[in-house]
Amino acid sequence: MIIAIDGPAASGKGTLSRRLADHFGLRHLDTGLTYRAVAAALLVKGLPLGDEPIAIEIAHNLDLSQMDKTVLSSHEIGEAASRIAILGGLRQELVELQRRFAETPPGAVLDGRDIGTVVCPDAAVKLFVTASPEARARRRTDEMISKGVDANFVSVLDDLKRRDERDSQRTVAPMKQADDAVLLDTTEMDIETAFQAAVEVVSRAKDI
Ligand code: CDP
Questions:
Q1: Contacts (Cβ under 8 Å, ≥6 apart) of 89
Q2: Which of 30, 81, 151, 196 could form a disulfide with 36, with the two C-beta atoms 3.0–4.6 Å apart?
Q3: Does the beta carbon of 85 lie inside 6 Å of ligand 1?
Q4: Is the pLDDT higher at 75 or at 27?
Q5: Of the candidates 207, 91, 191, which has an alpha carbon nearest to the alpha carbon of residue 143?
């Protein structure tokens, strides 16, 4: 069983995906981390973000079990990840890796921007998780402050809007709700309410 979860930054899709995977006994892959890991490797080597052959080579040798979310969660790496995410050849390489993960029994929850549309178009369940830009910026700001990182609501909101624009306007695999995805707008929901709603969607699909 494959569950595809897509949506914009700070929509809550990461937490939801982790909890759904635990609940249904599935593995979980945050595909954003794969883009972040490649971007981080380019930044460390001081290579230009547009160097696609090197980016593909890094992706080819990527070990999913070695991706450290704490290290990769920085704002700088997120920004770089969304810049390299426009490279078609790189995406193809990462998509293959993500598909292999998804197809390994007993199945998995994958979250990202193009899971329901490109990576796993035949997923048993698809959710598109969203929230207003202001709600997402509030969550991201609180999250950063709780980690001791200096954060300002207005600049976080600006960043999110810029990244949403880049992710939804790119020509290759833009962020988009799949036709058969269920929309979950979490603007007015806390994580527990959103989780219960997602469990309901998955349980309904499993009964079909
Ligand atoms: O956690 P957050 O939503 O801030 O970002 P992320 O999910 O870690 O993704 C970082 C960037 O990677 C996004 O802005 C996208 O440009 C890109 N990405 C993508 O293109 N396709 C995916 N399946 C996942 C991430």
A1: 52, 56
A2: 81
A3: yes
A4: 27
A5: 191
* CATH class assigned to 2-207: alpha beta
Most informative mutation of 18, 31, 42, 119 for ligand 1 (most atoms within 8 A of CB): 31
- Does 136 sit in the ligand 1 pocket, CB within 6 Å? no
Q: Whose CA is closest to 43, among 89, 80, 91?
A: 80
Distance in angstroms (rounded) separating the CA atoms of residues 146 and 199? 28
Measure the CA–CA gap between 134 and 121, rounded to whole angstroms: 30
Nearest CA to ligand 1 atom 17: 82
The domain ranges of the chain are: 2-207
Instruction: Determine contact, residues 128/7, Cβ cutoff 8 Å.
Output: yes
Centroid of ligand 1 to alpha carbon of 208 (angstroms): 31
According to DSSP, residue 174 is labeled -
- Ligand 1 in reach of 35 Cβ (< 6 A): yes
How confident is residue 208, by pLDDT bands cut at 50, 70 and 90? low
Confidence of residue 66 (pLDDT cuts 50, 70, 90): very high
Tens digits of per-residue pLDDT, 74-108? Answer: 889 999 999 999 999 999 999 999 999 999 999 99
DSSP secondary structure letter of residue 113: S
Which pLDDT belongs to residue 158? 96
Which residue's alpha carbon is nearest to atom 16 within ligand 1? 82
